[in-house]
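Possible regression after last week's pipeline update?

I re-ran a chain I had predicted before the update to compare outputs. Posting the input and the new output here so someone can diff against the archived version. Not blocking, just want to make sure nothing changed silently.
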Amino acid sequence: MQHEADLELASEKTATAHLQSTKTANRSDRNQHLRFAIEGQRLYILVLSLCLCLFLSTLESTVVGTALVAITDDLQGFDISSWIVTSYLLTYTGFLTVLAKMSDTFGRRNVMILCMILFIVFSIACGVAKTMLQLIVFRAFQGIGGGGMYTMAFVILPEMVPPSKYAAYSGIIAGVAALSSLLGPIFGGVISNSGTWVWIFLFNAPAGIVALILFYFALPAHFPYERDDADAPINLQLAQKVRRIDFVGLFLILSSSFLLVAAIQEGGIAHPWGSGVVLSLLVLSFLSMVGLVAWGKYFARRLTIAQEVVLPCTILSDHYALGLLLVCFFTGLGFITCVITLPQHFQVVFHDSPATAGYRLLAMTLIVPFGSAAAGLALQNLHSPPLYVFLIGFAFIILGTGLSTMTTHVFDRFPAYQYAFQTIMGFGFGINLAGAVVAAPLAFSPQDLGSCLRLPLSDK
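New output (post-update):
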């Protein structure tokens, strides 16, 4: 009996080892056409172009915050002025997954260049807008380009460097993204004080053209595939590429995000929270979310082999991946809230000018890169568990934001200790924002690259 049990156990171990080797072989076969040959000067130029793209796209998400007063004074329409920020963020976030997934089929460089052109053209359109409605519409299209630039930078990053260098470059990319968000209120305030608000948008044109030229010559046309790889999706016919698109998933993911943001934006302002308009938007958004999950989990089985679901159910069913997404959500929620609302708070409570309100954030701005570096060191060099790193990051964020909410209306001037609180929360934001990028390789599989946005294609 013992001999039979030993034989059965040995058989199970052999089968398990065979299954694991088969999975590894399949992954190697699937990734054998992927290219990691970008080196030297071309790599440095590509990194520079990606950093510039990230800087411009994330800067636009916060730069308007300290310039809203100047814009509304010029264009009027104060009751809808908040949509100047919301319209950009709405399309910016709504098209992240969509454009990343489409790059799997139409090519990384093609999608990135299209997004850069959209961003440049509609930045100019925003600068020449004559009415508030025109500016809001142009900002929405600008957000599509900005969101595409952001997501494509994180899609291209793990494919252009080997795993050994991923932490270093991801720290640089994440640091630039965080730094530009924090510099937005400063730039917006300085430009509003010294000139006209239109330069907030027109500045993107020359900088965007430089980034476009650098990117075009730095990234190979067929990246990350070999030019002669017949199985690469980029080499398919146009009709075959169109058939690979999951239009149902695209509609559901866009409608769920758009309807939710519209409900939050209108609730308590244009319509009461209990009104039929707001409740209808919330219900439709919830139904779209449920439909998206159901489509990815159940109905995707009916898709042909050529088609790819936008949001694979494996992402939501994996606890590690879901936890990482929640870390990104709650960190980003606090980060964007602080960057946008704090300058307005400084102007209202302490009567600061737009430029001074932006300068007040320097304490947070300067410490974020140090938090990013600490996260990269802990995860890559010290091999610390991501859970502990994120818990430390959230501890700094909760402590810093909690202390910053202390009553300050009794002060006639800005209290100096607020800088210390900003330093604490900035360090936490830096840890989690960079840690999420570095930890992503452990969460997602290579075939989910377009949906997850940040994934090194390596056999780990």
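Follow-up from reviewer: compared with the archived run. Residues 143 and 190 are 23 Å apart (CA to CA). Marking as no regression found.
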